[in-house]
Amino acid sequence: MENIFEDVSDYIVVINENKIIKFCNIKFAEKLNYKKEEVIDMNLEDDLLCNSKLFCNIKDSYKLLNENDNIYSFRSKEKGIKSFIGKVYKTKWNNEEAYLIRFNPNEYDDKDKNDNIINKLDRDLKLAVNKYERAEAKISVLLNTTTDLLGFIDKNGRIIRFSQEWHKCLGWTEDDLKNIAWQDLFHPDEKDEVIARARASKMNGNLCEGTNRCRCKNGEYKIIYWKAIYVYDLGIFVGSGSDITEEKKYESESKKV
């Protein structure tokens, strides 16, 4: 495979998930005034790239880097700057997860093209901000109008967004909820069962639900019917609950009659 990449006109670089260069063709190394063996095992981000923020998290960003042509600026051996347009592809290299970067060999120095790319990035950023703001507005309306115990839980188990019903139903304030782990809201006798259901839901992607005692701020417990699901794209759990304490009391009293 390495011989194939030596024959192409483009510059080719292959890095692993730690951004260590596992391969580059001779053309790329010579363009930066290095020998090929000097470049192998360099850290692409730390040792060569000037605009390293493009690779701040290659696992998460490679799709974006693949969809768009980006400008990559490199430090040559003499510390000069050489820029190229390139694209990233996910691949395997010697049975290891890797990323192949293909660069146009024409050195990038066209101001008009640069302005066009900057303008496109600016437009894309504005669209992303508008999309986020619209989604945020919808979430805010939902949190302020729902009669359920609605909450968003991050990967550390902290409730990061929640509806007003948490205070109305259980007495917890915003500051309280920001400083308490979600599992500590359940009765100690039932907490492990709820955690097991949440873990299973995260693994299989299915909705989990249950009826459990949840602690109020005053130390009392209410019976809550709840549902939750893990959203992988966001890395959070989204859950909702309803207070069914009175219904359960009525059921219990009816059985006694």
From TrEMBL:
Keywords: Coiled coil, Kinase, Transferase
Signal peptide range in chain numbering: none
Pfam families: PAS_3, PAS_9
Recorded coiled-coil stretches: 118-145
Record domain PAS: where: 1-49, 135-205
CDD domains: PAS
Entries under SUPFAM superfamilies matching the protein: PYP-like sensor domain (PAS domain) (SSF55785)
Cross-referenced Gene3D superfamilies: PAS domain
GO molecular function, one term: kinase activity
Designated name of the protein: Sensory transduction histidine kinase
Annotated source species: Clostridium disporicum
